[in-house]
Amino acid sequence: MLNYSRVKQEAERVKRDFPVVDYFQCLVSSGxxxxxxxxxxxxxxxxxxxxxxxxxxxxxxxLWYDHxxxxxxxxxxAVQVFEGKSFTESIQRLSDxxxxxxxxxxxxxxxxxxxxxxxxxxxxHNALVNFIRERGLEPDEINQFAKEVHWRNKGKRYFAVGFxxxxxxxxxxxxxxxxxxxxxxxSIKILGKPEKIKIFEGWFDFLSYLKxxxxxxxxxxxxxxxANLSLRxxxxxxxxxxxxxLYLDNDATGEESTINFVRVAQLFCYCHQNGLSTDWDLKAxxxxxxxxxxxxxxxxxxxxxxxxxxxxxxxxxxxxSYYESFEDVNEFLMRAIQx
Length: 339
Fold this sequence. Notes:
Blueprint: H1 4-17, H2 20-29, E1 33-39, E2 42-47, E3 55-58, E4 63-66, E5 71-73, H3 75-83, H4 87-96, H5 108-111, E6 115-121, H6 126-134, H7 139-142, E7 147-153, E8 156-164, E9 170-173, E10 178-181, E11 187-191, E12 197-200, H8 203-213, E13 218-222, H9 231-240, E14 244-247, H10 252-273, H11 291-298, H12 303-309, E15 316-318, H13 329-338
Parallel strand pairs: 12-13, 12-14, 14-15
Antiparallel strand pairs: 1-2, 2-3, 3-4, 4-5, 6-7, 7-8, 8-9, 9-10, 11-13
């Protein structure tokens, strides 16, 4: 049992060193929340049943606030609210696990059988057909990948276009709903005999790319949220294939995620070229605001080498130039159809 002085010191360390935005991204990966994007200097998250996110996270101040509930605070208060931990338990929770590896166990009052999938079928509802067409696609073009999912939550019934993810849950989209049920995380589709990996932010970007390119023979990783593009996922992808095409959004988050992936690929390539291990100790990066800088230090790479690393040419390609005047691949498709 920690004494009072030790508890206070550890609490201050946790609040100082652990990025609260990383914790909320873990809540997204665990299917507890959905990520809504960045507005100004704040990241926004929301509960799955909300149309828009109510939780604002200020990465600079390292604080969060839920506007709908009128509560917020630091990362320790987040663990107390979202995991039902006591103050001391919250400190021990974060002391034992780096934020990027935390798996959130939902409280029984939230997770037990509130959400029940009642029907999964071919897409036929007029509202969903119109929603798909508004995105520049036809139902028969996406039927191979999508279903019409009906579910019940706390006695209320909902329906949306559903895409499966790797957590055996559903990524749900409609004109009024955006979220996950029964687990969040990435989706993976393998087409033909994959020659490379292509990464998309969302399903409609992937489907738009298929319609525009008629491409085959690649492995698609649909992030469903850039919060899922963790350093662990980047490393797993590069260990599988160093030929990667990135189709992320033309916004601040897409820019940051693309730059980070390219830099991780450059460092990965440098390690191969110089006989360094690529089995990186990601646990050692816990609490780091700039994980790549910390990783460079942990690998004992001299500062004189860093600029050389960022000049390395890799097979990770930023594809955003093809739709640079548009928010994403789907918007590019919609404008192309309108012409």
